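Q:
My hope is that you can spare some time for a protein that puzzles me. I hope you can help me see how the letters and the tokens relate. Thank you; the sequence and its tokens follow:
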Amino acid sequence: MIQVATGLIIFFIVLILIGTLMVAGKSDSGYDKKAKNTSITIFSIYVVVSILAVAGIAIYVYMI
């Protein structure tokens, strides 16, 4: 059961990251410079959420 939950979390994180990068790629020429900091912030949020999700699953598994 935990393996399925872990797999789903990883799947959705990858799916969301790909969607974000696809949307970020569709812009005008001036938008790329303006959106660079925003893209870095979003990527950082994904990394932190991914780490917290895996840590949460690990804590749950060890508490059972």
